[in-house]
Amino acid sequence: MSREEHIARTFLELADTLVEDFDLTGFLQRMTVRCRELLDITDAVVLLAHPAPRLYSPAPCDPRRALQRVIAVACVEGPGVEAYRLTHAVVPDYPAPGEQASAWPELRSALDNAGYALPTAVPMRLRGESLGALLLLHTGDRALSPDDLLLAQALADAATIGLLHARTVGRQETINGRLHTALHNRVIIEQAKGIVAVRRQISLGSAFAAMRTHARDHNAEVSSIAMDVIDVGLLPAVPATGPQDPSGAD
Question: What is the pLDDT of residue 90?
Answer without folding.
Answer: 92
